[in-house]
Amino acid sequence: MTGKNHLATVLVVDDEYNVRLVAVRMIERLGFQTLEASDGQEAVEVFRKHADRITCVLLDLTMPRMDGGQACLEILRIRRDMAVLLSSGYEKTEIIAPSNDDSYESISGGHGSKFRLNAWKGFVAMDMLRKMKQERKPYELVPGTTEAVYKQSLKDLESCMENGGGTLTDTLAGIAYAFTQIPISNGKRKPVIAVVGEIFMRDNDFCSAQLVRRLEKFGAETWIAPFAEWLSYSTIRYTRDSKWKGDFKGVIKSRLQEYFQERTASKIAKPFHGLFDEDKEVAVKDMLNACGPYVHKHYDGDPALNMGTSAILADRGISGIANILPFTCMPGTLVASISDQLRKDKDNIPYVSIAYDGQEDASIDLRLQAFMHQANQYAEDKGLSSADANNWVLNTTP
Q: How many whole angstroms separate alpha carbon 337 and alpha carbon 6?
């Protein structure tokens, strides 16, 4: 620690001593007290020790041991309201705003179609891995086996995609086989809970307050809306918006995107055919057709997808719906406000909305326990607990 005893303290983090020294001296001349760290890991340790007195963190982006991005996440876990300034150190940093209007060409050097196709392959493949994991983990005979297979599969997929994806079919076949070798129990099926909500919330354990893990702890099998649905949705919106603008070229381009996305997704899913509950696959177009009683399909964003998915899956053997939303988020609040009508329309299916603001809340566990009690009762009443329900069985053969 350096500087005089002022009220405001800035944590300066940089692995280059001279850069850090200059920053510290400039900040102290402005009347602030400073703390220093030479990398992300040290920064987290220093911040944890002095979190109550630090006002701001000046954080280098590229550092050894732990980079600035990861350190920022760890710091925000400790204090969600902390002001963090990330500094890249690059002479020229281009700022872009990815947009569906140009098919995301702004982040792909003018190669929007190629970028989307490669991203699409990765998203669809990742979604398949998650489906296999979530459907098997609640029934594994040796705790931790499914997670280990998933992590190794993720590494294999990342390596494949980083090297161009030329071996993707063989890689996925090997991953599918690995999942079939997990010892599992095919008996009474646990209540299936559909996890829906804002895409960045449901796909990040921290942002969702570990919702999937908590539900599994209380005896659920979970189904989570696929990440790839957002890219599929953006293609549909691209077609729609092009029609509205009279952009014939945009319509043709978006139709081609849709065709190749569907064709590619079919190929990626092939090695997993028969290995998971495919009845719960919901096409984005079907979501938009099913959301009508609750929200207009042209309400852009999560609500249409959320309500459409929930309406369809409520008729396909799930026992409850968990909706995750950012605290005070307007689209999420809209979904929460109209969810009661959906619940009533679907024979009072258990439904819970969890608004999360990044702070730990002990009441979440209590709410989820009560929710799971309702889901268990619903599953029993509807005959969804037997292994034969919806022709369900976990395939463990290669």
A: 47
